[in-house]
From TrEMBL:
This is NCS2 family nucleobase cation symporter-2. It is found in: Cell membrane. GO terms for cellular component: plasma membrane. PANTHER family: GUANINE_HYPOXANTHINE PERMEASE PBUG, XANTHINE/URACIL PERMEASE C887.17-RELATED. The chain crosses the membrane at residues 21-41, 47-66, 73-91, 97-121, 133-152, 172-189, 196-215, 245-266, 313-334, 341-363, 375-403, 415-433. One of its GO terms (molecular function) is purine nucleobase transmembrane transporter activity. Belongs to the nucleobase:cation symporter-2 (NCS2) (TC 2.A.40) family. Azg-like subfamily. Its main location: membrane. It is a multi-pass membrane protein. The keyword Cell membrane applies. Keywords: Cell membrane, Membrane, Transmembrane, Transmembrane helix, Transport. Pfam families: Xan_ur_permease (PF00860).
Amino acid sequence: MDFLNRVFHLDEANTTVKRELIAALTTFVSLSYILFVNPNILHAAGIPAGAAFTVTAIATAIGCFIMGLVANYPIALAPTLGSGAFFAYNVCVGMKISWQTALAGVLVASILFVLITALHLRELVVDAIPQDLKYAISAGIGLFIAFIGLQNGKLIVNSSSSLVTLGKFSSPAVWITLFGLILTVVLMAMGVPGSIFIGMIVTAIFGICIGEIPLPHSFISTPPSIAPTFGQAVFHITDINTPQLFMVVLTFLLVTFFDTAGTLIGMTQQAGMVDKDGKIPRIGRAFAADSTAMIEGAVLGTAPLGTSVESSAGIAMGGRTGLTAIFVGILFLISMIFSPLLAVIPTTVTAPALIIVGVLMASNLKRIDWEKFEIAFPAFLTVVGMPLTYSISDGLALGMIAYPITMIASKRYKEVSVTMYVLFIIFVIFFLVTNL
């Protein structure tokens, strides 16, 4: 215990090994769906599903180890679904680019990412973002997470007339979600430690009892080989030789940069790591960790890794140091042989956790200076932009573009840093590149 305390500074963070383990279990259970969703997405690009499953587990574990040891943050790194969907459906299916070449594009973007991080450009950007917008980013991610939870639990479904609508109460998935949500809300209101994790476990048991969640056919299985994907990004790096592929690399870089920056700000804000001056300690190390993780993920054979929003579930359970991330990585390695057991944790079970975590993160709305319109408008765009565009980076971009405009209009332009004006231009270009 003394060794762990020295390495992860548990006493300084006012946490314990037990609390970090509970936080890790909560993050893992919330994030475990990535073991099945990411391979399905990558399989659409042509990557063997078995190899993609093992690669997802290994890449996530290594990413968590890097984040935990380098930055000492309670944040998991995993393949992001937004980047994965772009990789599979836009690049491979839409542009008809082979998955090997697409992986090479991810590797090139990752190398550029490391260079940008080494020059401290990412750190400069984060420090330049006003405190009110940082609160808005955190709250916006909270609404985004809650929206994902509502969708995963089938409480909110697609509608041809109004885009979204209330789910049907005749659906068993809705009842599983409602059971878990009510149970967890009661446990939270009673102040029961580990309430989110307890809620998920009991909800899974409830789903099994009513016959909607099948019992696993076996307990362990041999992890599929990663031979089909390992090193393909390196072998095909010379394929990046056309304007179209350079644009693919640029898009990977932009989307991952802003997704990760926004999520990291939100997670550290939630964990109470931001100091009174709005600075985030060790943010440079955190950026170095996630950019390095992108490289190892590309070499192994998966779409870009990034900061996982599901880490907020573990943070809500008290995770405050890198030991949480280390435990999450270990759990992902273990999951490779116990993968049949993960089938009892579908998205309907994790949905209540995401909804409640969204509520907790939305509390940062009270910290925003709503009395000043020049602050309120860009903050509002950031908050609603994330769930409505279904993208952290798009919501972040909306706020970053609006902020200099409103500050100039209110004659407070001198309070806007040069970096924020540069960001304004970059985000406009970002929208032009990704949405034309």
